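The authors assume throughout that readers already know how a fold can be written as discrete tokens. A single example would do more here than another paragraph of explanation. An entry of this sort, consisting of the sequence and the corresponding backbone structure tokens, reads as follows:
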Amino acid sequence: MSSATSELHTEARDFEASSYTLQRLRQALFGESIVDLTDFQFPNEEAVNTFLRLHGYDADNPLDMAALWGVHADAIQYLTEVHRYQLPGHVMAPDSIQQLFMSAGRSLDDDARFACLCLKSMHIYNHLRSRELVFNARVSEAELFGYLSTKVFRVLDEMRNAGVKMLEFSAGKKKRMSLANKLMAKRDTLATHIFDKQRFRIVVESKDALVFALVELLDRLVPFNYIMPGQSENRILRPDHIAAAMGLELRQVQRYWPERVSEIASKNIFSGAGFKTVNFVAEIPLRLDHVVDGIQPAIAVVQTEVQLVDEETNRINEEGENAHARYKTRQSAKVRERLEGLHSGLPQLPRLKD
């Protein structure tokens, strides 16, 4: 192979790897549904195997792969029996699961689109299996959060070793009073809609570091297809930040940037106007073979909120109307308005003096 041809192949691989990273960043920053994706940008089989490991599957473990082929069979049955698709052979019976992933992003022809359909259906069935395991297993929510914390702390150590400089890290479970306030503050909130019972918050030194930390989380902890639609907020990062951090041309990043960001990004109505964060909710897969009998792989999912902010933005977030105490005051005022019926014109009820 000539030197020029080798450079072209290297550039192509780099482009594919960058596209895969940008696709995942878009999911984290804007919380779109994986079901609406038209292709997948996995650059190579190594990236596919890493993605499978994020879900708890070891590509070298025959039992794990047998379980994954079972998910594939569920997806095929769904697509052929419910929707009557005439699927091509490379989707019905691929040589490997990895081949199916790779064929879903090579083009937008029918063969690639059918592979994409299959992967999206497998996503749903895999998620259903994980949810059913959580429901049926004799594992408490507290135990699940404990396993999640252990996994997160291990990943944070790996990120530090990879060069991510974290200035601050906090983790915790919301107190019952805070949950009650949140449930009462919004008309459309039910207990099933509380997504941040468990939260991890990371402060890094710069916006470049924020991009780096986010990519590392997507590489090591968070499967991008398990980021919850409609629960992402990005009020910090712009395309130029990502282009600069990744050494890409701005136009390449803009290809993955939604045209109507304001319609996608979620915003907490009680936050100050200047409060900025990168925030998303994801379900993190956990291997529970050691506590669940008779199932291997026993893979559950635990929901958590992840918040990232750079040092300068974090400082501004603690000032004036953005301060957390002001946030709590606004939220509590809305709760009292609803509890007392003030929106219906009733007078305020007496309260204790501060």
